[in-house]
Amino acid sequence: MERLGINPWILLAQIVNFIVLVVILRAVAYKPLQKMLKERQERIQKGLEDAKAAEEARARAEEEREEILTEARAEADRILAEARRKAREEAEKVLSQAREEAEGIRATARKEAELERAQILGQVREEIAALAIAAAHKLIGEALDEQRQRALVDAFFSGIREGRVEVLPEGVERADGPVTVTSAVPLTEAEKETIRRELTARLGDEVEVSFEVDPQILGGLVVRIGDRVVDGSFAGQLEQLRETLA
Fold first, then answer.
1. 182 beta partners
2. Which of 93-102, 209-218, 236-245 has the lowest mean pLDDT?
3. From its phi and psi, is residue 194 left (phi > 0), alpha (psi between -120 and 50) or beta?
4. pLDDT reading at 58 higher than 80
5. Which of 35, 87, 231, 232 could form a disulfide with 220 if both were Cys (CB 3.0 to 4.6 A apart)?
6. Mean pLDDT over the full length of the chain
């Protein structure tokens, strides 16, 4: 080794120094560096694991978010559908009440219109009847001469004989009280005798018959038997016509 220019002791010293340096470096630098690298690797691994966990958590959160949103949308749709249903029911209820009220108003209006129409017609009928009766009074008063008056008297007693004019109600045998015969014109004695004969034949021989004249009856006869009145006058017929028209 001396030929090579290498001092064995120096070489040995360098080897020893290198070994010592390696031991020192291993103790002072390598182990801490290795530990630091391991810790760094662990931190990186932990970071990766944390990132994966965070990603998984984010994914779960996204899924939960979608589920919540889906449930919220479904709930919103349900609430909206319920609100629409209730709104339709309320609207239908309001419309039904409005229809009922409108029908009630129409029915009331029709009833009031009918009542008003009936009242107007009643008033008009009364006025028309009054005018018609007044005109009839005038026309009959002008048209009934003495000859027609006599004919009406004969017709009245013809009705009694034929049963068309009832002097006494059925089941009553005789009349109580005096009998008064009213005519529109004075009767002749022959007519009075005929009237007495017809009345006594039905009312009995004891009946007393008196005669009166009242031009207001227009024509025909009015026979009063106690509290019973047999009205065969034109005025009575016109009054019945007026009541019928009114």
1. 212, 222
2. 236-245
3. alpha
4. yes
5. 232
6. 75
